[in-house]
Every structure is written in structure tokens, then in C-alpha cells.
Amino acid sequence: MKDDQHKKLFDQIYKGDAKGIGASVQAALSAGQDPLELIARALTPAIKAVGDKFSTGEMFLPELLMAAGAMQEAMKVLTPLLRGRPEAASKGRILIGTIQGDLHDIGKNIVKALLEGNGFEVVDLGINNPPAKYVEAVKAHQPQVVGYSGLLTTTLAGMPDQIAALKEAGLREKVITIVGGAPVSADFARRNGVDLYGKDANEAVKVIEKALARAR
Predict the structure, then answer these.
(1) Are 73 and 127 in a shared domain?
(2) Cβ-contact 158, 97 below 8 angstroms
């Protein structure tokens, strides 16, 4: 019974069944399943599998978006049940948003879903964030990692200002920074003083995990 429910949840994430997964999660909980076990044995393996398939070109953006949406629906049910449980402590707090002038948030939303599915707490600033808003959010939320997403080369020209604002506020050495987006490259990150680069959402999760492991 338990394994059957795990498989059903895995398949629903993998296939992007955002409409049906909430009821399936509720059914598993009603049957006595533990929220953390559902995440560890069904949801996280599924979203990781989708991310890996996307990275190798075996799955495409629409499928990744659907899986991310299903993951978010499942976590809406489970997250309230995890609050206050020591064993549910997050792997780290990540602050993400799109940089000033950029209104495209599909990539950011995928990264958010994958991070949450992998056990991170995510503070989402949304779109079009000037440097000052990032600075305010870092002070308020004290993340370990600050993520910048940009799809347009014109808006990415403002990346140096984002890093400069962190330095001026005395926050640069307190956080790990990462940037991603279609026009972005490892060279772009290096030239603009950003610590990490994620070529896609799945890679972003992996490099963040490695960076935090080194920092501990």
C-alpha cells in the first residue's frame, strides 16, 4: 500500500499532474503516511529524475514546467505539516528573483520548485528587482545563497550594480551568489563577481548544494 502510494506520487510529479497530486497527497496522509517520507521517497526522487532528464535533453521545458507545477501543488499540502519538526529543517535558505528590468520568471520558478523539492527554503522576490530590494531582502531573511535570474542581455548589464550594492551594504562576504539565464555563462559570472553559475535549473541546484557543503 505504502509503496503503491509512493509510486503514484512519483508518477504524478514525473508526468506533471498538478491537478491530481493534491488529492493523492491527502490520501496518503489519511492512510497514515509521514509527510517527510512522502517527500524523501516519492516527490524528491521524481523532481530529480525530471531535472536529470531535462539536463540530458530527454525531457523538454514544457515537461519540466509541468513537473515543477505538480511539485508546488504537493508542497502546498505538505509544508504546513512540517513546521516545527526538527528533522524537517531545511538544507539552507535561498533568496532568488529576476534582476531589475527583467519580467521573465519561468526559469526562476523552475529553479524555485527544484530547490524546494530538494529540501531548501526559498524566498522568492519575484520579478524586476533593483539592487536595493535585494539588499533589503538579504538583511531581512539572512539567506546563505542569493540567486539572480536574467533572460535579457540588456538587463544583465545591471549585474555589476547588484554585486556592488551587496558590497556597499557589507553583505557580499556573508552570502554565496549565483546567476542563471539563457544569455548567461560561467565567464559572465566570473567577470561580474558572481560566485556560481547554473546552466539550467537542475545544475543550479547541484552547484548550490556543493557550495554550501564546502562552506560548512
Answers:
(1) no
(2) no
Strand pairing category for 145-149 and 93-98: parallel
In the 8-state DSSP scheme, what is residue 128? -
Report strand pairing: 121-124 vs 93-98.
parallel
User: In this structure, are 110 and 55 located in the same domain?
Assistant: no
CA angle, 95 then 166 then 203, to 5°: 40
Which residues are CB-contacts of 23 (< 8 A; sequence separation ≥ 6)?
Answer: none
Q: What is the DSSP letter of 16?
A: T
Q: Tell me the residue range of the domain where 142 lies.
A: 93-215
Which cell numbers in the block locate residue 68? 515543477
pLDDT averaged over consecutive 10-residue blocks of the chain (216 residues)?
89 96 96 91 90 88 89 89 70 95 87 84 95 98 96 90 98 97 93 94 91 90
Three-state secondary-structure class, residue 216: coil
Q: Are residues 82 and 126 in the same domain?
A: no
- The DSSP output letter for 129 is B
Cα–Cα dist 133/125, whole Å: 8
Distances (CA, A) of 151 to 61, 103, 137, 154, 183: 15, 9, 22, 9, 6
Sheet holding 145-149, edge to edge: 121-124, 93-98, 145-149, 176-180, 196-198
Nearest to 173 by CA among 148, 146, 191, 149: 146
59, 122: one domain? no
**pTM more than 0.70:** yes
